[in-house]
Design a protein that fits this description.
Layout: H1 4-17, E1 34-39, E2 42-44, E3 48-55, E4 59-70, E5 81-84, E6 90-95, E7 105-114, E8 116-125, E9 132-139, E10 142-149, E11 152-157, E12 160-163, E13 175-182, E14 187-194, H2 200-203, E15 208-215, E16 221-228, E17 239-248, E18 251-255, E19 265-266, E20 268-270, E21 275-278, E22 282-285, E23 306-309, E24 323-326, E25 334-342, E26 345-354, E27 364-368, H3 370-375, H4 381-384, H5 397-404, E28 424-426, H6 443-456, E29 460-464, H7 465-471, H8 473-476, E30 481-484, E31 490-491, H9 493-504, E32 508-511, E33 519-522, E34 530-533, H10 569-573, E35 576-586, E36 588-590, E37 610-611, E38 621-627, E39 639-644, E40 652-653, E41 673-680, E42 684-688, H11 695-698, H12 700-703, H13 706-719
Parallel strand pairs: 2-26, 27-29, 27-30, 30-32, 31-33, 32-42
Antiparallel strand pairs: 1-3, 3-24, 4-5, 4-6, 4-25, 7-16, 7-21, 8-13, 8-17, 9-10, 9-16, 10-11, 11-12, 13-14, 14-15, 17-18, 17-23, 18-20, 19-21, 22-23, 25-26, 28-34, 33-34, 35-38, 35-40, 36-37, 36-39, 39-41, 41-42
Helix pairs in contact: 7-9
Amino acid sequence: MESQPRKVTREILSHLFNLHQMPTGQEPTPQKLITGYCEPWSLRAGEEIEWFGSSHTPTSGVLEVVRLDCGDPTRSGPGFAEERVEEIGTLGLDLVEQPLIPGSYAEARLQGAAASLRVSLWFQPSLLKRDGVLVSLSSGTDVIEVLNRGDALTGRFSELEKRIRERPLERHRWYFLELEIDLKVKSVQINVMSPETFSPGRDLLQVGEENSKFDLPELSFTDLVFRLAAGAGETRWDGRIAAPTVVADGQTYQWAFDESMDGSVVRPLVGDINLELNQLPTRAVTGPGWTGQHQRWSDSPAEWNAIHFHHDDLYDAAWEPSYNVRLPESLDSGIYCFRFESDLGIDRVPFFVRPAVGADCAEVALLVPTCTYMAYANHRMLIEGADFVGARSNLRPEHQYLVDHREVGLSHYEKHPDGSGVMFSSRRRPVLQLRPGADGWNFTPDTDIHAFLLQTEVGHDIVSDEDLHNDGYSALAPYRVIVTGTHPEYWSTAMLDALDEWQRGGGRLMYLGGNGFYWRVSFSDSWPGAIELRRAEDGVRNWQTGDGENYHAWGGEYGGLWRRNGRAPNQLVGIGFAAQGFEKATFYRVDPDVYDSRAAWILNGIDEELIGTSGLGGGAAGQEVDRYDEKLGSPGHAVIVATATDFGPDMLRTKEEFEGTVAFPTPDPFVRADIVFYETPSGGAVFSVGSISWFGALARNGYDNDISQMTRNVLERFVDPTPFEKPNHPGS
């Protein structure tokens, strides 16, 4: 007979990945064939949005826009609910396949004819088990390319291919390559040199120069296309390139990669031709001259004069738009989807609508954590396994699609095949888990909170992370109350600054999740719709940044945990990430002193000492939990309303809590979830629950439960304009 913990584990993980039930009206299919994305994810009523659809098998179907009240189809949620937007109507559409071509590369187009060329650059291969084109020169059908065939460096001259270095290439070693091409005499001289490193032993078989000379076939270069990390076709290369130079008939073109780190264009150091960057390669990485004496690239940019290219980078699918619509100005703020249905199945692409410019706003807004959605976009933890769940073979169609179509790109939770972490993630591509019911992690649970707010009839709007980053304080200013999603983990500096300002002005914040305000991310105007993440210096992470690469390319800020950047979550919401574990969720125990405190109103209608005893996996506290800790900045006057400690043995302290290999006490006093309340300036307040699993207890028994009652108590009091009074002293 199965033990109870294993049953609970199965329920939690089943919900996390929603394997047991499809959305209403959608039957399981052996293969998902339709997918799409939209641009943008968030907009105002009255603005335009584009939908990009693709089907691997040509199909005819119907496209409509639906309002999504709840996207959770499982028995743990309040029930899947969507409604067609009549003002927009329906549209019959034919869909065909739109290809995805991943792989970052750089390209420059040189005008005129060239009979003699010299090309030089530094390169560092990072993946040798896969063939790739390091550099190419092409004009029509005439091509010269340098590529690696495994660890062999070869040259391709139209149909002719020759090995140009006898010694095998070594991963993560810098080489200098120079080609001297004379089309008149039909010859090419190729020189490859490897300098010394800090490893004498490794240098034994690598250091030195090799020279090769070959005859060329008849070639003609007019309006030359110069590419780095890509061939004339779709072949891509993995590794780093620095200091490329092209001399064509005496005209020099030279580019340095140590300026404008956030740009999509590299302006020439010499010459007048820009180098265009495609599919978002990685900037602010160490180059051949890095000494280790500096860690911040802005202190000595010339040491970070490299770009790291990956064959699976994908920033923009660049599909042709299938449909463009201007939303009605009267459209209510909410969560919506493009819903396409044909005989091949149904695909829903969510987007978020704010009130029209100048329209009245509600007093409450749900802050949708779109940065978290981008960070997890197309994650493969279920497929490849993670620290809390083993790999599975019984996959939902959306996850199976990720198995079958690696070309849709990676999440911040994975490494590229060369072992480097994925530092950039984009929403300008199909994001398979951003589908109602496709993934019980992040988006689907957030629709449960959305459904809870709807049933209270208090009225609320939707604001996204990207809105907050772009608009700053003005995105929050209309609202008295902000409610977070279940997992608001990724925040930019501008977002935190805006929330800080809003709180100081009297805003009331309801943090209804866990592991929030944890990692720093950044945005770039040159790459809209993408975020940068550097997993620097500790934290629960699937990879870590390389040596000398902890500072963001976009803005130059130090990456990693906000806790390591002087802004622990405790300072903003009273609690911070403490532990994670997925064996079981549990209950909170109310502190009896709260009934005689200034926070007693939070417990109106709640008589039991134990609350949240039913919910996803067993209770309202679980998955990832946060605790109160004055050492990390939790306000001393906060009231700890309730605490959860009865977790399974897999609920362990977060990695940043470790100061050595020590045995923690059992039970561990630092492994807990705390519900806290406290006042903020100008009559504002904060209520934080410290658990991702909170959402799983909200809808139990038709919202007639203690967790729903507590959340409703707080919401109704926070909407009340009566200012919260400043307490006389901590703990009063």
